[in-house]
Amino acid sequence: MEYKTILVAIDLTDEAEQVLSRAVTMAKQHQATLTLAHVVEPVGYAYGGDLPLDLTELQQQLETSAREQLSAHGERHGIAKQDQRIIIGRPGTEIRRLAHDLGADLTVVGSHGRHGLQLLLGSTANAVLHGAENDVLAVRVR
Ligand code: AMP
Q: For the chain: N or C, fewer Cβ within 10 A?
């Protein structure tokens, strides 16, 4: 099976490079298009939205910083600007939605290979897998 459209989602931590380089290799092998994405969670989520604070500026700073970091990753691997996406929302949901919108046949994420309670509590890789319409590659990050 040849993958034609690959989506890679990275969390911008030190582990992101392991996930991205695997996706880049796969995209080359399959001569597929590659979209690179990162999801910024609304800061309000963390505070339950009930703080009497205007978080707009903080949110914008987070988005700008994420955009810059994503762009640095993209440039290292020759991924064009139009194939780099910053999305606001919940990572699992937004990654699945973007995969659908792109018609991606493969989504690449990282996985810590959690088990037991940690797995029950959920991970992004898990959230992406549940209800996914396409193949999902969970790259084991170390
Ligand atoms: P986690 O479940 O947070 O350990 O993340 C596992 C993998 O999910 C990461 O290696 C990324 O591939 C993906 N991921 C997690 N958070 C995000 C995010 N905010 N945006 C895009 N991908 C993410």
A: N
pTM tops 0.90, yes or no:
yes
Closest residue to atom 12 of ligand 1, CA basis: 109
State the chain's mean pLDDT as an integer: 91
According to the model, what pLDDT value does residue 49 have? 59
C-beta of residue 19 within 8 angstroms of C-beta of residue 139: yes
CATH of the domain at 132: 3.40.50.620
- Count of domains forming the chain: 1
Tally the residues of the chain: 142
Rg of the chain over CA atoms, in angstroms?
A: 15
Task: Tell me which residue has its CA closest to atom 10 in ligand 1.
Answer: 110
Half-sphere exposure of residue 70, counting CA atoms within 13 Å on the CB side?
Answer: 24
Test site for ligand 1: of 13, 15, 124, 130, most ligand atoms within 8 A of the Cβ: 124
Question: Can you give the residue range of the structural domain that contains 128?
Answer: 5-45+54-140
User: Distance, CA 49 to ligand 1 centroid (Å)?
Assistant: 23
